[in-house]
Design the sequence.
């Protein structure tokens, strides 16, 4: 007969190996995803606690020193001591001769 014991075993392994491989890899990836989600939740919780601590510290500071709304904030003006003057732009020296250079139109534009 064509099907001997070795052929049947190889056929069964060929049938069972892909689903077993998929199950093993699936479990691995599910475990990694669960661990990553737990880390993300823990980090978010830590950030929430830290934010609450900072807010409490700011509230305590405001109660001790009062609101700081009356403190003048210096705003920059248009001219300050560090304002620099830009050099004036000079018109370029003409490189070539254009056919309209000597026309009345060119004389009116440059005048």
Sequence:
């Amino acid at each position: 007969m064509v099907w001997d014991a070795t052929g049947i075993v190889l056929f069964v392994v060929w049938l069972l190996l892909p689903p077993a491989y998929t199950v093993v890899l699936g479990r691995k990836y599910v475990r990694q995803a669960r661990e990553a989600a737990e880390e993300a939740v823990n980090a978010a919780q830590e950030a929430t606690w830290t934010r609450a601590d900072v807010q409490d510290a700011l509230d305590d500071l405001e109660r001790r020193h009062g609101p700081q709304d009356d403190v003048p904030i210096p705003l920059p003006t248009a001219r300050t001591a560090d304002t620099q003057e830009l050099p004036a732009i000079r018109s370029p020296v003409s490189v070539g001769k254009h056919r309209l250079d000597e026309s009345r139109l060119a004389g009116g534009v440059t005048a």
